[in-house]
């Protein structure tokens, strides 16, 4: 399994995806085709945390009046399944590894995984 979960309207996602040869990867635009319970479970199995998959920059947090500090793992799971913007992106998922988000450390790990040097 090799899947990338991303948002097409996100410039950062597009910039990151453009760096790699994703020919044999399944590309999933999460707004059109949201993450399933099974896919979220596969991500959780690798991260051991729903919070690690949760985007604390989601505009839905303010719109819903959420206090992120008071949320537990069950809350994060429910929110991730409820709305696509709660997923930290992009997410590169393989049988053995997961890369979550767009922070510098994660992008560097992805570049190493793909054997790409910027």
From TrEMBL:
Alphabetical list of PROSITE patterns matching this protein: ARSC (PS51353)
Family label: Belongs to the ArsC family.
Pfam families the record matches: ArsC
Highest taxon in the source lineage: Bacteria
Designated name of the protein: Arsenate reductase, glutaredoxin family
PANTHER family per record: ARSENATE REDUCTASE (PTHR30041), PROTEIN YFFB (PTHR30041:SF8)
Upper classification of the organism: Bacteria, Pseudomonadati, Bacteroidota, Flavobacteriia, Flavobacteriales
SUPFAM superfamilies, per database record: Thioredoxin-like (SSF52833)
